[in-house]
């Protein structure tokens, strides 16, 4: 023990945490996986305790007891004040000489680009977008749901589909196949039965997100209302990306726009095609692609950016995760 590695990378999402210990030459000395990181639910101290369990395992496996720099990309770090609080809580653990905390969307962005330059839109349970330039400028949104102006994300799409399906069945809205496909997913014949099951929690509330893939299947079968919801998501993705590109003065130069998260990584043809059509009009120089690289790679690359590592160090690290 007693050796110092270059970077401790942490990618902590709502459902799981990945950590990696990276040597000065870009070799990955150890990785570990832990549970979800949810300070709003359990409090900062308990959330960091859970993180520490995975970090301790990685340090032990790597044979190190500290690093030069801790690069942590964390879910729920939505405002700079939250990043500062979490950075202080992590720094107090004395894992590294310096500590930087960013929102976890930055990890997905950095994982998909060769330099810290581009925009990422992530659509998983929620929707978020960030952008960065090599000079350190960033663009971001609070991404707290409807109160911060967001529309989309798996939860939002499921809610939108339920809304249209309920109104179709009772006559307040236009007919849609969603009125049959959504309840059928949970073994019900009618929306009324599904609404009652959701209300009485006979269907666990956490399972509501299962309706998002049903929405996409219904759209693929040609249902106009389902298709309109998918088109609206494409519009929202492109709107967020275009605003971030504009804020960073990247609209006029060729810039990667990375698409990540479960909903975008699923590559639904209608959604994919519509995003590319709209980008061609609103941000013609943007180069859209789906990012599948592990976000902990992005956290590690951000750490190497910070310590001024050479290009071949970045390449060795990337080869480990993509090999």
From TrEMBL:
Record-linked Gene3D superfamilies: 3.30.420.40
Organism in which the protein naturally occurs: Streptomyces cylindrosporus
Domain ATPase BadF/BadG/BcrA/BcrD type: 10-303
Pfam families: BcrAD_BadFG (PF01869)
Protein name: ATPase
Matches recorded under InterPro entries: ATPase_BadF (IPR002731), ATPase_NBD (IPR043129), NAGK-like (IPR039758)
Source taxon at top rank: Bacteria
């Amino acid at each position: 023990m007693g050796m110092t590695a270059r970077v401790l990378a942490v990618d902590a999402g709502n459902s799981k945490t990945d950590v990696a210990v990276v040597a000065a030459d870009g070799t990955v000395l150890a990785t570990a996986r832990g549970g979800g990181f949810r300070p709003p639910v359990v409090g900062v101290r308990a959330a960091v305790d859970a993180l520490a369990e995975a970090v301790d395992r990685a340090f032990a496996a790597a044979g190190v007891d500290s690093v030069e720099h801790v690069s942590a990309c964390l879910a729920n770090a939505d405002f700079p004040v939250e990043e500062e609080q979490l950075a202080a809580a992590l720094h107090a653990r004395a894992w590294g000489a310096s500590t930087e905390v960013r929102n976890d969307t930055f990890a997905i962005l950095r994982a998909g680009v060769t330099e810290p330059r581009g925009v990422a839109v992530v659509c998983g349970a929620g929707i978020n977008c960030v952008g960065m330039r090599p000079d350190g400028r960033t663009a971001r949104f609070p991404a707290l749901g409807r109160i911060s102006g967001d529309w989309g994300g798996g939860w939002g799409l499921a809610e939108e589909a339920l809304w249209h399906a309920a109104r179709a069945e009772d006559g307040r809205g236009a007919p849609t196949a969603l009125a049959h496909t959504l309840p059928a997913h949970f073994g019900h014949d009618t929306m009324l039965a599904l609404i009652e099951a959701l209300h009485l929690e006979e269907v666990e509330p956490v399972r509501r997100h299962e309706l998002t893939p049903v929405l996409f299947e219904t759209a693929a079968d040609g249902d106009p209302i389902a298709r309109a919801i998918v088109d609206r998501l494409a519009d929202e993705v492109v709107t967020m990306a275009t605003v971030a590109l504009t804020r960073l003065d990247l609209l006029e130069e060729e810039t990667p726009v990375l698409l990540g998260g479960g909903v975008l990584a699923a590559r639904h043809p209608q959604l994919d095609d519509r995003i590319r059509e709209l980008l061609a009009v609103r941000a013609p120089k943007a180069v859209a692609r789906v990012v599948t690289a592990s976000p902990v790679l992005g956290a590690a690359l951000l750490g190497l950016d910070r310590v001024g590592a050479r290009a071949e160090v970045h390449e060795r690290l990337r080869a480990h995760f993509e090999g």
